[in-house]
Amino acid sequence: LNDGRAALLLGKVDQARGELTNAYGLYQEVIVSHAGTTLLPAARLGRAEVLALQGTPNDQMTADYEHLAKILTQPAAGAPAPKMISLKAVSDSLANNYSQYYAQGRYRSALEFLRLAKLLGQPETAVTAFRWAQAHEALANELRKQAQGGGSGADQKLEEANQEDAAAEDAEVRQARLAT
Question: For residue 142, what are the contacts with CB-CB under 8 A and spacing of at least 6?
Answer without folding.
Answer: 105, 107
